[in-house]
Amino acid sequence: MAENRASAYGEGVPCWVDAQLPDVEAGKRFYGELFGWTYEDAYGSTVWARLDGEPVAALAHKADGRLPTVWTVYFSTPDAEATSRRILAAGGQIVTAPLPVGDGLGGSALATDPEGAVFGLWQPGTHPGFGRRHEPGTFAWAELYARDTAAVNAFYGHLFHDALFGPDADPDFGRAPVADVFPAEMPPHFVVHFGVEDCEAVLGTVQRLGGRVQAGPFEASYGTVAVVTDNQGASFALLQR
């Protein structure tokens, strides 16, 4: 088992990511070459990406062409129903109510914060989340680009206080103004970051595979970052620490 395998993630810790794509096979080729991922069928049309045998992400077929092609970060929760009620009480919205996933894998929900940024909840069953993280080719960080950072800090600080501010906090989750990186009119949104050893070198691979560079590389408090899109339009970031 990988050294950084977590048997369970605390409430509010980013524990999983998935990409909703028009063409999962094309996504497998893109990310397989970019990050060295291999794949196995998980449930329905969803595949799990693995690195050295450990699960690191999921690729899913986008059922409705009107939905965005997007990477989503999921925060761990012991009770998705209870967390959903707290989100509503704090001014957020529930996009997809908690539903069971697979054969006992867990339960998921989609929500938005008060500014409309979409994030997921994951209530673990037999699948706790990432088998590897914080290394090249795996999840490294989630950054929320917001309109009002004070307001979203209050929202997430209330929702996931221990994960963000508790004595054992390991947040993997930052907040920044949208205009720091994107045009001011860009809606608030999360950007999932994957670790790389050499940001510049990986940018070349992204472009060779049909992706494009949206921003960077630039220096952030947590490392060197470049925001890119894959060859189907899903945005994510590369993080060199």
Automatic annotation (TrEMBL):
Highest taxon above the source species: Bacteria
CDD domains (alphabetical): SgaA_N_like (cd07247)
Question: Where does the chain cross the membrane?
Answer: none
Keyword annotations of the record: Hydrolase
Which species does this protein come from?
Answer: Streptomyces actuosus
* Record lineage: Bacteria, Bacillati, Actinomycetota, Actinomycetes, Kitasatosporales
Q: Which Gene3D superfamilies match?
A: 2,3-Dihydroxybiphenyl 1,2-Dioxygenase, domain 1 (3.10.180.10)
- Sample GO molecular function, one term: hydrolase activity
Keyword Signal assigned to the entry: answer is: no
Q: Which residues form the VOC domain?
A: 13-124
For this entry, the protein name equals Hydrolase
State if Hydrolase is listed as a keyword.
yes
What InterPro entries does the entry give?
Anthracycline_SecMetBiosynth, Glyas_Bleomycin-R_OHBP_Dase, Glyas_Fos-R_dOase_dom, VOC_core
